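To: structure subgroup
Subject: Chain for Friday's discussion

All,

I'm putting the inputs and outputs inline so they're searchable in the archive.
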Amino acid sequence: MWIFKFNIVAFMLLFVWQCNTVALQDVTSDLFGVENYGTVAAFGDFYADKQTDIFIIREQSEVLIFFADSNKPYFKPKVNISKNNLPRGTIITSVVPGDYDGDSQMDVLLTAQSSTKMTTVFIFWGHNQTLDLGGRFTLNMTFADQPLVMDFNGDMIPDIFGVTDQDPLTKVCYLTNRSPECQNALTSPVKMRIPNSNAFIDLNKDFTAGKSVKFKQCFDGNFTRADIMPTESPAVKIVGQSTFVDFDGDGYQDHLLPVCEDAACQRSAIYLAKSGSKEWVPVLSDFQRRDTIWSFVAAKPSQPLTLHHGDYNLDGFPDALVILRNTSGSGQHAFLLENVPCNSASCHSVGRMLRIHWDQSDLGAIQNAVMATFFDIYEDGILDMLVLSQAEGKNDLIIHALKNNFEADAYFVKVMVLSGLCSNDCPEGVKPFGVNQPGPYVMYTTVDSNGDLKNASAGQLSQSAYFSLQLPYTLLGLGRSANFLDHLFVGIPRHPGEMDIRKKEWTAIIPNSQLIVIPYPHNKPRSWSAKLYLTPSNSVLLTAIALIGVCVFILVIIGILHWQEKKADDREKRQEAHRFHFDAM
């Protein structure tokens, strides 16, 4: 009977545990306290402590940097770029942290829109884990749209790429040593769509990032036009922002495009184009829940249709967060789109599709959501969620933080590639972390628990405009395979004219680890170094609890047996004493 009751209790505990594995937990107050308002604009390790900080825009006129802390609230505002540090009437449209002058310290780039609708670029230089607020730098060139931050010349210092208001040719601006130099970028003119969704990403798996969809960096390091993917969008009315992820786990980056099929945005879809293909394949077209049809929110110039990607369940296939509205009502909520095997003939050529999680009550409880993205709040390798909502009567958005309690004990590898401008001898003794390096490409190949070959790839900070909200590292899920990672490849951009691909391979990487790669010197991959930091999985904790439980159980049994033996000894002693008493008589 006692064993039966114990089994019931164990079953109930297991049931409760399993229920908690799929839930989201609101941890907003733990993270921000009363400071949970503003627009989350970017992420970056500003303090160079290997903890990701958050950049938030308030009232479209100031930027606050929230540093990660070990005490509640876990994110506290420490650095403030106020409206007094900017020209009067400046409207901030985006924030892009990065090391623009090559001193291995994070600077902050702001794009702002003026009355002429042109985009101006401001940069505040970093120094000793803070900003020189009095030394604002203004680029003497305005752009027709928000620029793309990329490493155009392969020197591992971010550059500024875009179309100016002066001529239709693309321009690239270098800011090395704080000496601006702007020149023509591409040899042929390109008509950029506004709002643009340009990307700096490797599309042909040569471990060298290429510009956008129409240009790639060839074997000699130069950019040339190459129609690797469809150059025309699907026949739809409204086209959203392009995103690039390894959707089907084949090691190649795929092009995802959210669209509205009619002008009123009543019918929505998400299309995918594979590298080397000219065909758009629908991976999500069913937006109906019971009798209600949901759709994308009609795009605004400052906030176009956007997917924010992340592998929330660590199965090796990137999922997405998106904002949908009720076409027959006024509801507007954030939804999770899970990457699942294809069960429709329309996506058969891809093998994967997106499925909407309709029953995520924690996401559904947030009214008037306007933006949602993934963020590893506790730096444990599990992607949590940040959702921004519009409160009535308030100008700034409200920030909601949701902890992902996914506990299926899946594994991951987290890779951050630094600039490699210095290793252990950085100027002024700064740590080489936290430089937000665009362009590196990461790919792994391994064997899963079934013996099948598994691979995945991702680009680091491939997009920067219109709140792309990409994390300064790549987080690749491994599924439930606890095997060592067989091969991990890391590649970086190379100089124009350079023939050799800058790529290095690491083998036997431990799962649930963070690998920080320092590509120094850039042109000698054999000399690159890596620092490995382990994140114990949930199974380690469960194993420890089980071991302690077994030890306690054995100690209890030993104690009971010892107590029974002691009682028996006492009984024998009393009997012996009793016999001795009668013998004495």
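Points worth raising on Friday:
The chain has two domains: 3-15+23-404, 411-538.
The CA atoms of residues 147 and 162 lie 5 Å apart.

D.
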